[in-house]
Structures are given as C-alpha cells and as structure tokens.
Task: structure prediction
Amino acid sequence: MDINWANVFDWMQLLKCFAVGGAICVIGQILIDKTKLTPARILVTFVTIGAVLGGLGLYKYVVDFAGAGATVPLTGFGYNLAKGSIEGVQQSGLIGAFTGGIKAAAGGIAAAVFFGYIASLISKPKMKKQ
Amino acid sequence: MQKIGKQTIKFDTPPSILECSSIVGPKESDGPLSKYFDQTLEDEFWGEKSWEKAESKIIRENVANLILKSGVSSNDIDFVIAGDLLNQCISSSFGLRDSNIPYLGVFGACSTFVESLSIGAVMVEGFAKNVICATSSHFCSAEKQFRFPLELGNQRPPTSQWTVTGSGAAMISKNGYGPFITHITPGKIVDMAIKDANNMGAAMAPAFCDTLLTHLKDTGRNPSYYDAIISGDLGYIGKDIAIDIIKANGYNIKSNYNDCGVLIFDKQKQDTHSGGSGCACCASVFSGYFFKQLKSKNLKRILLIATGALMNSTSSQQGESIPGIAHAISIEI
Result:
C-alpha cells in the first residue's frame, strides 16, 4: 500500500510546533551560556513566565498556534497550572484556585514520580561525557 | 626554619620529597598526562556502591601505593595529613580510618595539597621523620555536592571546570636526596566578589597573584628563577586573568607559567570547558608529572601554587561571594 506522506502529517503544524518549541529552548540555551543564572533558576523562571502568561490569557494563543511546541516545554507546565486554577475557581469557587492547578498538572506530576522511580530501579547514575 | 619577609618560611635543612603516588579516573586517563600516573581507573565507581565510597577507596589505595613505593615501613610514618572536597572531609577520614597512622584532616578546598605539604614540611623540619600528604577529589561526588545531581543532566556553562577524579600523595622525609622543599608561602584570603560557582578560575586568580607576588618579594627572586611556575586549577580563564594581573605588576610569566587544570585535559578532544579543578588536580599532576620531571632533573626549580575556592553549597545558595586562597611551595633539587 502506498502511503502518501504528504497527507499523513500536517507538515505546517509540525513546522510551527518545531519553531516555537525550538525558540523556547534557544532562549534557555542563551540564558545558560550568556548569564550567570543556574539551570534551576531558569527552570523556575520558565514555569513562572508560563503561569503569568497563562493567567493573563496570552499563552493560549501560543498553544493554539504551536500545539505541543508550546505545551511540552516548561512554560507549558506553568500555563497548565494557571489554566487549571482558573477552571477550578469557575467550578468550585476560591478553593479551586488552590486545587485546580495541581489537578490539571496531576498527570505530569504523577508520571514524573512514577517514571523517575522506575528509572532509579533499572539504571545507575553515570559520569557526564562532557 | 625562619620567617622571611611578610609571610614566607625558609627551611634551614630543607625536607625532601621522598616519593609520590597518583591514581586518576577514566577521563584523566584519556588525557595528555595519562602515561605519567601510577594507576588509571576504567570506571568512576571502582567496584564501590557510591561515588563517595569510590573516592575514599582512591585515597586509601593511593596512600597504600605510596607507602609501598617509598619503601618506608608504616611504623616509621609519623603523620598523614589529608583533605578533600566532600563535607567534613569524609573521603580522607573514611579512606584512612584503618591506616593506623596519626591523622590530621585539613581543608583548603583545591589548595589542600600544598597546604598539607606546607604543614608536613614544617613538621619534618621540626620533629617528624616521615609525613604523608594526600588529597583526593571525584567529579561525580563534587558535582552532586556543589552543583546539581548528575541525574538531572544539567548542562555545564562554558566557564565551568571539570573536577578531577583521582588522588595525589607525597611522602616528605628528613632523609632523602631531593627534590627539596626550600620555601613555603601560605597565602592570604582574597575575595574579589565573584559569586559564580561555575567560574572558579576568576575567583581564585587574584589569590594566586597575591601569593606569587608576595613570594617573589619575600624571597627576592624573579619569576625567571623558576623553571616552571605552576598553579593548581585556575583553568583557561583563570590562567589568562593571572597572566594579565602579574603583567600589570611588572613581571612577565608567560614563558614559564602553566596550570595543572590546563595540563591534565585535552581542550580540543575532551571538552572540559575551562579545564580541570579539584583537590586531585594539582595533587595528581604534581605527583604524576612534575615530581618525575624533578627526579629526572628535566626541571630543577619549580614553584607550585595550589589555588582554592573557599565556599560551600550553602554559601553559594545564600548568594555569598567566593573567597579565594593560594599557597605556594618552592621545590628545588
């Protein structure tokens, strides 16, 4: 059977996803190389920026444009927290501001704990190559 | 033994460095000095369960090798002076707990090797027959303690240096045919308000210069008196800064100055960014390479200046600057 690859993927969407996700990573790389920020601070900054932009309703446009290119990087996690909190407030009032964010991000958090645990059982830390 | 000038000690009967021994890890074994080290390891665990245990094993085995090589009976060894980078110097104290030799643990960060040689030399000039001076460091245990867990897979910034895995040890003795420790210049703490734990070279270079200039003034010597002036672990960035500062003070050390952190790795092939660092950097390069050069009389006079960054992980997290230190030891045949 012939597969018409041109139609299997939405190539334009893939390109947008790559460009936006890549651009976010480039910002991180520049911060590592050109500033004295530690990786941990860059990580927290990205999550916070995502949450702020999500709360202001701006990050939604980036997600609509780039899909996973915007949701997979760290800013996407912040966006998810903000979005969850807003939805939580709409559903259950002020208490939702505290529960909604974690609920929305629960899949990511639980998966990180689970796969982290599995990885620690089957692998051993090693020296960096460079 | 007498004090000359501001802070230099001159020995009347210079103690001899009887023997040296070195062990290095896998990355150092791929480096340009590989053939000079006594023992090279193929993996960073060396059969142990943790990097900390591996580091203790490295210093333990290295001291054992040194005793064997020197031919001195362990009953005739008066003291062992050792230190490392891990909190409360556990690599040295755990590694040497069964040695049955009176032990002094010292901490001078990466300057520890020359600090212990200085104390050892004073003891030998005074009352001791044989003293062992040893240090160790391990890339993985140091990264874990001072920076981030290796499992996190963080990128290292371009200014960062690579902690040497290994150990260097020297036996200082009343009897011996050299090379001799003729002078020591313990350094002052110099803090130029560098706060970046990933740019140690810049934090330590001013301390190196302060100690070198003081040593030259105290002894009345010129840099050209020495065949080689060797800093501990300033790396590429710190080395350039040091050459510039010394030049501004009227001396040109470009031709006979080098740095152990620059020598131990190949910049092009090994991509360690700004070179090597750690207690074992200066210790293994001296024990492995320079001691042999002195023994074979390829070099006759060297000034070894080990540099240290006197910070810990708490001080870094609290945004404190990094105090630098450098101790100099003049070794001649």
In short: Chain B is about 35% helix and 25% strand.
